[in-house]
Amino acid sequence: MKVALIGNQNSGKTTLFNLLTGHNQKIGNWPGVTIERKEGRIRSTDFDIIDLPGIYSLSPYTIEEEISRKYLFEDNVDLILNIIDSTNLERSLYLTTQLLELDIPVIVALNMSDIALQRGIDIDYKYLEEKLDTTMIPISALKKTGVFDLIQVIKSQAYRKNNYTHIYDHELEDCLKKIESEIKHDHERYIAVKLIENDPDFEEFHQNGSKKIVETLCMTYNRDMEQIIADERYRYIENIRDESIKSSKQNMTVTD
Ligand code: GDP
Ligand code: MG
Ligand code: K
């Protein structure tokens, strides 16, 4: 089994990787670049884990993004372990919503839960699980809490198989479904989104139908389609973030 650890910079990736693997690590570089590549074995399992470069999006604009997205797309990953900073849900979930479009199960480790607790931020992670159709586990890689639970979930493979398709407006969602039906590939949703975004790396997947659909969309919206998709993601994320966060400190000051 192959697990890919992925998250924003400073989300706690290295701290968690070290905890999960102990001294069982192989360190090198990604081919052709001086970006560190670390692999290891998760303690008391036969799961190999790779620490992918820290990124904010699966776009083709930085070397780190290129490495990570190529790896996820081509390297038969069995499970994505997405580590996120609980104190910065909006930025973190932007990447999460993209990972969920791949045909790979995702577990989200809500890291920095110790800081969230200190600040009185109470995240309804069951609500987030439902809204994103994924498995979430609060942890603190620094304080070493929740990590045992995380390993158990990874080992038991008792996580949701994401089916999530509810962030885009009706028109975009209809177009995505039509394009997906034309594409013969495991990652058809991810590819369909990339085609709508006019991502140059995915041109080869275009069919007659998908080309027409994207052309029509471009005319209808008359704006950069990548921006439209990004706006839709943020709209959805802001919504579920607001619903999922209850500030317990704030609640305590509310009296009548
Ligand atoms: P990376 O850039 O994603 O590899 O992040 P690091 O593992 O290097 O962590 C970035 C910083 O956050 C370091 O100073 C860590 O000690 C700290 N850190 C990581 N996880 C936690 C956590 O759960 N709680 C707190 N308070 N700090 C953390
Ligand atoms: Mg790191
Ligand atoms: K998926």
Textual characterization of the structure:
The chain is of the alpha/beta class and 256 residues long. It has a domain at 2-156: P-loop containing nucleotide triphosphate hydrolases (Rossmann fold). It has eleven helices and nine strands. The protein has helices at 13-21, 63-74, 89-99, 113-118, 125-132, 147-156, 170-182, 188-196, 208-221, 225-244, 248-253, and strands at 2-7, 25-29, 36-41, 48-51, 79-85, 106-111, 121-123, 135-138, 245-247. The strands form two sheets. It has a seven-stranded mixed beta sheet with strand order 2-3-4-1-5-6-8, with helices on both faces. Strands 7-9 form a two-stranded antiparallel ribbon. Residues 100-104, 162 line the site of potassium ion (K).
